[in-house]
Amino acid sequence: LNSKAYIIFAVGLFLVFILTLFLNNFVSEERHAMSKMQHDWTQEEHHLMDELRESMAEIKTMLDNEKVRRKRDASTRTNNLNDEVRKIVKEVMKEASKSGVVKSSRKDKSSSLHIDESPKLVREEAQIPETKYAEPEKLDAIRAEFLHAWKAYEQYGWGMDVVKPVSRRGENEQYRMGITLLDSLDTMLIMGLDETFKRALEWVKTGCHFDNQEVSVFETTIRGLGGLLAAYHLSGEQVLLDKALEL
Fold first, then answer.
1. In terms of CB atoms within 10 Å, which end of the chain has fewer, N or C?
2. Per-residue b/e over 143-159, b at no fewer than 16 CB within 10 Å?
3. What are the pLDDT digits (tens) for 169-213?
């Protein structure tokens, strides 16, 4: 029994040893395979990251080129627009010079144009002829509507570009020159609202400033510049002409 037991025990130990070697070899191969997979994954990740960086660099380059192109195109359009505006101004001044409103002066070296200091039409001397179209009731109604809107502007948006009727607050983000006020000066004079005009004129003297900023040439010309020149033409107030020249 003892010899058989020893034999069985020895065989058992041998089998355990063989099984252990097999398991160790199997585990070692699995570890090697996992390590190889991780290495391959790491290389693939690095490769993908490199491709991503290259793609991002290409996109950034494309965006930068697009910004440069748009800026160049915008500059070209602005220059073309300025050329067109100068051409139109020259034609207008040429026609005005023929009609006698603007006279050229070679004595003043600081400017090639001399604007007649005394306007052709002064408010106090203007005579509005009576016609069948000038019905007093309608004129009063139109004047009342203007004053209704203007009082809201005075209360909520004085000196600002616009007043928002719902929120009842002024907004001064686009022009920052009181464009509504400048645009309304000649309307006040035409309607005979002298006191209203005086209050607005006082703001023009003390609160109207023009910053070097990007604005709509069209809106600024017809509302800002046009409002100042029309009001000067009707009132003869020198400050309006000065502000028009400054603008």
1. N
2. eeebeeebeebbeebbb
3. 888 877 888 889 999 999 999 999 999 999 999 999 998 888 777
3-state secondary structure of 159: coil
Closest to 105 measured CA to CA, from 93, 114, 97: 114
How far is Cα 175 from Cα 208, in angstroms, rounded to an integer? 12
User: Taking the chain (247 residues) in consecutive chunks of 10 residues, what is each chunk's mean pLDDT?
Assistant: 72 83 82 78 81 86 87 80 74 64 41 40 42 71 91 91 88 84 93 92 91 83 92 92 90
What pairing do the DSSP bridges indicate for beta strands 102-104 and 113-115?
A: antiparallel
Q: How many whole angstroms separate alpha carbon 184 and alpha carbon 78?
A: 29
- Cα(116)–Cα(114) distance, integer angstroms: 6
Half-sphere exposure (Cβ direction) of 80: Cα atoms closer than 13 Å: 6
Strand partners, 170: 163
Question: For residue 98, which of 90, 87, 108 has the smallest C-alpha distance?
Answer: 90
Burial of 162 (0-12, 13-18, 19+ CB in 10 A): middle
pLDDT in tens, 218-229: 888 999 999 999
Apex 96 CA angle, 217 and 231, nearest 5? 60
